[in-house]
Large ribosomal subunit protein bL33c
Amino acid sequence: MAKSQDVRVTIILECISCVRNSVNKDSKGISRYITQKNRHNTPSRLELIKFCPYCSKHTTHGEIKK
């Protein structure tokens, strides 16, 4: 049987500033959140402002591929 295409998909949000700082080795880790989005309502990549414990402030978290 064919696998059905779910409308709601699980996505991973990753801190954008931690990813940039990991090149400089300033950050001790990368903040990630797991959430869901509706594929029909939001076809583009999702970006939300979330708290990053490594940056100790609210930063933009963008959707990454699994």
